[in-house]
Design brief:
3-stranded antiparallel sheet; 2 domains; globular; Rossmann fold; alpha/beta
Length: about 375
C-alpha cells in the first residue's frame, strides 16, 4: 500500500509539473514578434522546467532513431514552376533543387499559396508550367490537414498493421505496430478502439503516426502541431530531431520551427518566395525591425500641422500617476531581485516538489514583472 501511495504521489507531482510545463509551453509558442530581456528570463525558467519534466519520464522510454530508406543523390527538383489561381499569382518561375537532409520551413500569411506549393512539390497538383522531378529513391510521407482517411471501419491497430507490421530502428532492431502506437499515446485499450469511435484528436494522432510508420525519407508536414496534445507534440519533436531525411514544414509555431528547420521559404505574396537563411524567430525579429523602420520613415512626411498637433497629446502625469510611477520604481528592483533568487534556486537542482513550487512562483512573478515594466514605460515616456 505504501508503495502504491508513493507511486500515486509521484505521478501526481509529475502531472502538476506537466500542467505547468504545458502552460509555459503555450506562452513560448505565442510570443509576440519582438521580445526584450524580461522575456529571456522566462524562457530560461521554461528550459529548467522542461528539463526536469523530461527527467521524470520513464527511463525505459524507447528511442525512435530511424533506420531510414536509402535516399539517393537526386531528391526533388522544381524548375521554373509557375502557378496562378485566376488573378492571384502563387509561383512565378520558382526554381530549387532540394538536397539530402535539408530541413526547410515554409512561412507566410494565409492565402499566399503555402499548401498549394506543397501539393505541387508532391505532384498532387499540376503547375501551370515548369517541371517537378522526384528522385527514384524518394519516399514521401505527407501529413496534411485533410485528416485520417479510411474506407473500412476497423480497429486502430489493424489500420496501422495494414501499413506495416514493424518499424525498423537504426540499431538493427525493430518495434511492433503496438509499441509504435504506445509511443504516440495509444494505450493497449485504445489500440483496439474502432476508427469510428476515436475522437478528432485521436484520429489526428493516428494519422500522424501512420505517416511516420511507413518510414519515408522525405517528410512533408502541413501545420503538424495543430490539435496535438503535449505528449504527442514532444514525441513528434524528438522523432524529427533525430530524423535523417529531408523535412518540409508549413507552420506558424515559432518554437517548433526554431528547433527543427535550417532555413525558410518565406511566401511574401504576389508569387514572391524568399529563401531566408535563418530560423523563424530571426525572421520575425527582422520583419519587426523593417516594419518599425518603415513606420519611422513615414512619420516625417506628415504636414507641419499634424506635428504640432502631436505635441499637446503628451499629457502630464496626474498626482495619482506620479504616485504610481514612484511605487513602480520601488517594485521593479524588488521583483528583479526575487527573480534572480528564484533562478538561482531553480538551477541548484532542488527536489522535484520544491522545483514545482519555485516554477509556479516564477510564472506568476514574470507576469507581474511584465505588466509593471510595460506600465512603467508608459508613464516614464510621458515624464520625458
Amino acid at each position: 500500500e505504501k508503495k502504491a501511495a508513493r507511486i500515486e504521489s509521484e505521478q501526481a507531482s509529475i502531472d502538476k509539473a506537466r500542467n505547468l510545463y504545458r502552460k509555459e509551453l503555450e506562452w513560448m509558442r505565442k510570443q509576440p514578434k519582438a521580445r526584450t530581456t524580461k522575456s529571456k528570463s522566462r524562457q530560461d525558467a521554461f528550459a529548467v522546467i522542461e528539463d526536469r519534466v523530461k527527467q521524470k519520464q520513464e527511463t525505459s522510454e524507447m528511442s525512435l532513431q530511424v533506420k531510414m530508406t536509402r535516399l539517393g543523390g537526386k531528391v526533388l527538383e522544381m524548375k521554373k514552376v509557375y502557378k496562378q489561381f485566376g488573378n492571384l499569382p502563387i509561383l512565378k518561375g520558382f526554381d530549387y533543387t532540394f538536397k539530402k537532409g535539408e530541413r526547410i520551413g515554409i512561412v507566410g500569411k494565409n492565402g499566399v499559396g503555402k499548401s498549394t506549393f506543397i501539393r505541387i512539390a508532391l505532384q498532387l497538383e499540376e503547375p501551370d508550367s515548369g517541371k517537378v522531378n522526384h528522385g527514384e529513391t524518394v519516399v514521401f510521407g505527407y501529413f496534411g490537414q485533410e485528416g485520417l482517411e479510411y474506407t473500412e471501419d476497423k480497429r486502430a491497430i489493424e489500420y496501422v498493421k495494414s501499413l506495416a507490421e514493424f518499424f525498423p530502428l537504426n540499431d538493427g532492431s525493430k518495434i511492433s505496430a503496438g509499441q509504435f502506437m504506445e509511443k504516440f499515446g495509444f494505450s493497449a485499450e485504445q489500440q483496439f478502439t474502432m476508427l469510428s469511435k476515436l475522437s478528432g484528436g485521436e484520429k489526428r494522432r493516428l494519422h500522424l503516426l501512420s505517416v511516420l510508420f511507413l518510414n519515408p525519407n522525405f517528410l512533408v508536414l502541413d501545420e503538424p502541431t495543430n490539435d496535438l496534445d503535449l505528449q504527442t507534440l514532444r514525441t513528434l519533436e524528438e522523432f524529427l530531431l533525430d530524423y535523417p531525411g529531408c523535412i518540409l514544414i508549413v507552420s506558424h509555431d515559432r518554437y517548433f520551427m526554431d528547433r527543427l528547420v535550417d532555413h525558410l521559404f518565406v511566401f511574401e505574396g504576389n508569387a514572391v518566395v524568399r529563401d531566408y537563411p535563418g530560423n523563424y524567430s530571426q525572421y520575425r525579429e527582422e520583419a519587426a525591425k523593417q516594419e518599425s523602420q518603415s513606420a519611422a520613415k513615414a512619420k516625417p512626411t506628415a504636414a507641419p500641422e499634424s506635428a504640432q498637433a502631436e505635441t499637446p497629446a503628451k499629457k502630464k502625469l496626474s498626482f495619482k500617476e506620479k504616485f504610481e510611477l514612484e511605487n513602480l520604481e520601488k517594485d521593479l528592483p524588488r521583483l528583479e531581485k526575487e527573480k534572480a533568487e528564484l533562478e538561482q534556486k531553480m538551477n541548484a537542482n532542488p527536489p522535484f516538489e520544491e522545483l514545482q513550487k519555485l516554477a509556479a512562483r516564477m510564472s506568476v512573478l514574470l507576469q507581474d514583472l511584465d505588466a509593471k515594466e510595460t506600465r512603467w514605460l508608459e508613464l516614464s515616456e510621458r515624464v520625458s
